[in-house]
Amino acid sequence: MRILHCCLSCFYVDKYSYQENILPKVNLDHGHIVEIIASTETFTAGGTLGYVNPAQYQTAEGIKITRVPYAKWLPHFLMKKIRSYKGVYALIEKFEPDIIMFHGMAAFELLNVVKYVKKHSNVKLYVDAHEDYTNSGRNFISKYILHKMIYRSIIKKSSSHIDKILYISQETKEFLVDAYKAPENKMELFPLGGEVVPKEEKLRLRRAVRDGLKISEDTLLIMHSGKLDTLKKTDSLIEAVNQIPSEKILLLIAGSLPQANEQLWEMIQNNSKVKWLGWLNAEELRKYLCACDVYAQPGSQSITANNATCCGAPVLLYPQKSYLALFQDNVLWVKDTEDIYNALYKLIQEPMLKNRLSDASYRLANKMFDYESLALRIEK
Known about the structure:
This protein is α/β, with parallel strands linked by helices. It is 42% helix and 20% strand. An eight-stranded mixed β-sheet has the order 5-6-2-1-7-8-9-10, sandwiched between helices. A six-stranded parallel β-sheet has the order 13-12-11-14-15-16, sandwiched between helices. The chain has a two-stranded antiparallel sheet with strand order 3-4. Helix 11 links the parallel strand 14 and strand 15. The longest helix has 19 residues. The chain starts with a strand and ends with a helix.
């Protein structure tokens, strides 16, 4: 089949491990012909969002990418919100897709995709939604003008021609219903995924990391990562680790530390139970997720919890709505420092619990998060 991925509601970043990168790659691995149409929005050298010139090129795997320019019927600062582009319809006609995966609902360009689907009734259209009220509609103009007026009208005109609306979390589903009045009967949970690490590879990486850091097998190794603002509750995690009456425990922390939470650095420095790793790329983080006994995210949400599960790591999480809908037998639920302490102490006292939770992570990863399985859902 011919599968087209449209990354026009958001940025597209080359050589990353986002959903927009991995799903097309897996589609290609499954023997399909794959192309990507993307906006010019991407990460710049400094790691911030910026823009590149329109261009055509290929990924390392051989997937053709066409970055299209914004239309000019409005000034650029408005057009990058409306998300209308030049030449998309012609590109779709040229490629003649059997399946279109439109990443993100919020774009005027969805109307051109629907225009093509109307003329080719055999084409399946899937729309993948990542929006929720933590990343969208956070001020009056955005919420009521952009989302509840402009995008809602686009989705109303398009929804009857969409086969499935794939949402990544419970919060996203609630946003789609409230902001866009999207039809719930077309919605399916389609979580952000990962590539499941085979057990043999996990054990190899575990030994390599632990040997490199001189960490014994009987040490409880905890991994924590992200942009460490106050919502991450890193301080509660460190406090709980410090209270554990054992030296056979180590907390690895990776990520960035915002200025507003600088006091956290004082808790990390000169702490024998905490090791700061700094910023890790996806491949480096994967190694540590394979090496740890538990991945801890006791505050705000992170896709890394999904990735940790794909590495066979148990997870320690705050009971967010999305987490409650996704995670099952592989999770230790925590709300505060006392809960974290009790969960970690239990892992120390019951060594076999780590193995049971790890097995549960692998079962969940293969069922819900494996990009191999997720790709098959849009290839039907």
